[in-house]
Amino acid sequence: MARTDADADEAPLLSEEPLRPGACSRELELREFRDRYVIRSLDGGAAFAVSRSVGSISPLSPEEAAAGSDCKVSRIYGVAGIIRLLAGSYVLVITSRKDAGSYQGSPVYHVNSMKFLCCNEAIKHLTSQEKRDEAYFMSLLRIAETTCGLYYSYDRDLTLNLQRASKLAAGRIHKPLWKQADPRFVWNKNLLEELIEAKLDEFIIPLIQGSFQSAQFTLKDRPVRITLFSRRCNRRLGTRMWRRGANLEGATANFVETEQLVEYEGHTSSFTQVRGSIPLLWEQIVDLSYKPRLSIIEHEETPKVVQRHFYDLLQRYGETVVIDLTDKRGDEGDLSNAFAAEMGRIHGVRYVHFDFHHVCRGGNFDNLQVLYNQIEEAIQKQGYFLMNSKGEILLEQSGVVRSNCIDCLDRTNVTQSFLARKSLDSQLQRMGALSSSESISISDNNNDVFKKLWVEHGDELSLEYAGSYALKGDLVRYGRQTLPGLIKDGMSALSRYYLNNFHDGVRQDALDLISGYYTVSQGSSSPFQAGGFESASYLPVASAIIVGGITATTFTLSQVGRNAQHFISSIVCAGLTVGVIVLVKANGKQFCSRPRLCGLI
């Protein structure tokens, strides 16, 4: 079980292990005075103060940091950044963490909780409208505090996959972590600017949003460790319905790089895949429908958008194979056909369409072999990265598979796990853990470990983008759909519906604020001037009734097997819930939670 460091009284006050070159302080002390916050390192003595009135930063000597006793003292585990709003600055600190495992010998931590320290005494000088705006911005910061799936290391750059990191100059490890990092995968990139300007390198921690899962099993009486590490791109960060497709620069929503590492007998291997929304200009606006209509935006820049996206992939990963898992009918079919037409103009990229729902209907996961047969030669040619215990590179991955469905969650995760298992067999065969005819599936226990990693990985990525657990987890875990899995998928689908319609607009505002897509400044337009906000006052009532109806329906359905009365009750509860949804929908789209800072970008 992972150890949580928050409130750990038995933890030593000073770290015994010296900091590596370029590393960040592992444990910090927060001292809260009436006029300032003081943050000092318990590793090396560096410190700085932040004024609670204006948010100015002042580096401190160890003696200055230790001075004064009239303060509240607590332990924190990192400074995630600073954001400036109308009334002053807000400092984001990590208040608790847990061990997530290790990456290339360095500990990796999961952020358990964060808190913004307020340096906003100037709020008393704001106008009434500005105070209202500031209150809304502060509510968005509270949402940001609960961001899930954040990981970091104090002495290892986690933004680069193993192949990229191994090919860079050895001297880079002596640079501060933020200078080593790939800015695409730094979740708090926008929040670090003031710390960088103040030259507080020892306190600057790049956070990666994604998934980090690790497990171990045995082959030939020797341990095999598998690590699954996903990194979400920050260039088009957002929620499921409010960030679709690409922007004009070619960055796509829900773009994730997933690296599967295997360690065995001193050898380390890495297989990298990517996923991302269909790189066209398109949207899907919530309107209380279960599946809102997809709309392709006609724009003269569309061909260049697609070119920019794939040029970037070719430069970073090499030869690219695109797997489009969308349906061939309905709105998805229209989007898929438009994507295929654009891909016909892109040179050096292979496009493969695979109608997942049609070919794998009935929950038959094994039918993905049909897809693999089409791309097997290309995947084997791309290969994987492999190095020995001396750090010598034996093999390199020469390309990447890019998978997408509509959300790039459920169908995509099932498909990526299938390709990852094929690669894992090849990696273990090359390392000598398996013979050329053997597969990891020969051992049910080992196969279950692998499947569990991918199920948990899919759930975590889905929570970050859609707010619910992934669907089709059964296909990864068992290769088929089960009744408990269907029930779980049903609950996740209902959860997505509720969050997408009633919460994600505000969540999108929080992401836009944190990521810098929306910048707060004196004189900027108020988020309340866009109109329609007052209709949001109905949201708590409508959403409470819908959630209550869903909960009651779920409970009574679970009791159906006992008697007919429970079945009738479930029908009534479901009918009332649907009735409320129809009533709210009839009164317009304004009942949905909508972003008011940037909207669709």
UniProtKB/TrEMBL annotation:
Domain (SAC): residue spans on this chain: 141-467
InterPro entries: SAC_dom
PROSITE patterns in alphabetical order: SAC (PS50275)
Regions crossing the membrane: 567-586
Keyword Glycosyltransferase appears in the UniProt entry: no
Signal peptide residues on this chain, from the entry's feature table: none
UniProt keywords, alphabetically: Membrane, Transmembrane, Transmembrane helix
Protein name per its UniProtKB record: SAC domain-containing protein
